[in-house]
Structure formats: C-alpha cells, structure tokens
What does this fold into?
Amino acid sequence: MNRKRLLIASASLIAGTMLTSCDPKPAAAGPPPGGMPEVTVTTVATQRVELTTELAGRVAASQTAEVRPQVGGIIQNRLFTEGSDVKAGDILYQIDPASYQAAYDGAAAALAKAQANVAPVRLKAERYKELLASEAVSKQDYDDISAAQKLAEAEIELAKAALETAHINLAYTKVTAPISGRIGRSAVTNGALVTASQSLPLATIQRLDPVYVDVTQSSSEMLRLRKALESGQLTHEGAQAKVQLLLDDNSQYAELGALKFSEAFVDPSTGSVTLRTIFPNQKLVLLPGMFVRAVLEEGVKDQAILVSQRAVTRNPAGNAMVTIVNADEKAEPRVITVPRTVGDSWLVTDGLKVGDRVILEGLQMARPGTPVKALPFVAKPTAAAPKSPAPATK
It folds into this structure.
C-alpha cells in the first residue's frame, strides 16, 4: 500500500513539472521610450592667435677662428689651458725667435749702413749744384751725383722695408688669439715643428655667447607666409621675430632669440631656405653641433577661428568635418578646412562662421538630420594633485 502511494505521488510530481515547463514565459519589457538626445556644444567665436612654426636646426658658434702659425719654427711653449676662455691678443704659443731676432738685427744694421752712405752723397750733390751755377762742373757730373743721391735714398727706404718685415716676422713668433672665445684642445706640443700657414690648425677658438641656430624652412612654406603677411591675413609685431628654443630633451631654453636673416637662395637639393637665429648663451648651455628645435613667430591672426580637435572627424575622402546644431535644432555635418593645429585645437579657415554651434560631446547620438537638445559645454575643473602627507609631529 505504501509503495502504491509513493508511485502515485511521484507521477503527480512529474506531471506538474511538465505542465509548468510548457507554460510560455512572459515577454521581456522593452526600454522605456527616451527623449531627445542631449549634446554639448561650443559656439564659434573669433579670437586673436599668435601663429608659430617649429623647425629643426643645429647650434653654431657666432665666431670661429682656427689658429695657424704665420712663420715656421719650433714650438717653445704653449701658454694657454685647453678648454679655457681666451681674449683676443692673448699669446697662445711661443715659437723659437732666435733666427728671426738675428734677421731683425741684420735688417737694422743694413738700414744704419744705408743712412750712413747717403750723407756724403747728399753733401757732394749740394756742392756740385753750387759749382754748376758758376760752370765749374759740367752738367753731366751734376746729373751723375744727383742720380747717386737718389739711389742712396732709395737704399734707405729698401732697408726700412726689410727692417719692418723682419720686425713682423719676429712678432709672429708669438702666436696670439685672433678672437675672444673658448679654445679647444691643442694639436701640437712643445718641441713640435710648425710651418707658416700650415693646413693643420694649432687650435680652434669659438665664440659661444651669443650663438647661432641655423634652421631650414621649405620654400613653399616661406612663400605661403609671405603672401599671408602681404595680404593682411597675418600681421607682424616688432622689427625682429622672436624665437623660442626647445632642447634635445624637450626642455625649453630659458632665453628668447631673434631671427637674424634668411638666405637669399634656395638649396636645389632640398628645396629649402636656411634661416639664421641668434641666442644669448651666457651660461654656455648651447654648444656647437647641438640638435635643437626652434619655434618661430610667423605672425598674429586677429580673427582666427579655433575648434577643439576632439570635435573634428574625417569622412571617407579624408576631409575634416564637424557636426553642428543648425537653426532647426538638428544635427548637420559640415566639411571644414583645417590647415594646421594651434595647441589642442584646429585652425579653421573655411566651413565655419561666427555663431555656429559645434558638437563636442554626444556625437555618437547626433545622427545627421535628427533633432538634438544642445547644451552649452562646460569645461571640467582639473583635479588637484594629491598632497604628500605632512610629517608626523613628535
């Protein structure tokens, strides 16, 4: 009897389970109907923008002089410290002056001899002139003594020139610095034999304050900038364009420079023009050969239109475009012309006008032609950096 009841209960349970599984499930509720999509917009306005361009370049010394001997001889002494600063006129090397001193003394003696020889000839010419008046001597004799006097006086001038040459060569035995600046390593040591105007310089001096930074700019970019200035689209402030320098480690150089000049020709191999800028370098941070980037002021655009880069997309053709909210409060795509960036924004030269509302946030919901609710964009405040905990007080 118990077994029969257990079988009946099991059958009832199975039947109830099957009936429950066959019941249809209630349909899932759909999303509640949403309102008009909200987007944040910024209103286009003009502003004054200083346009700059960044060009690569290298540092060069403002003056460079290679020190070479002007007379030959043995180096007796080097009178400077390598890597130190020298002034123009400082003695750098002393060449053995013995032979040049002897040549100078010989030239001085030759001058003295020539001056001594001219005295009797001059007196004789004066006497012959008096005798010629009374016809005591012939005209030929007087002409001969006059010629001898001129020859003796010419010998004096020749001896003076020889003495001056010997004096110059003697002075050249002291090799002096032609310019002020920092001198590099010496190519010779004491006892080395040098020759006049040799190809190998004894040392090199470079003036490092100020320094030049030579950068290159494409000729097409130079023409574009010149046309913009001539048409009044850009204006220039000051007589010289200011230049900011970025070092190789991306740090900013503390001193401002100025554009000095641009070359009068275009390099045919690169199609670029060299611009020379000048920078003060009192602390000698800039060294010749260093790679840097110069940020040059191109000019000022008084009525510039800027739009944030995050509002700009590209269509399949690669053209820049933004989405605006038109007068019907609908999303409308707009193709724009953006020739360059200014900070984190694009400079717009065509496609937008003052008063246009450009969508910054909510672009994924702003389908072309759909109504949208435009809200003014409010920049989020920058989160303050966490402060380090104060030291515990005892």
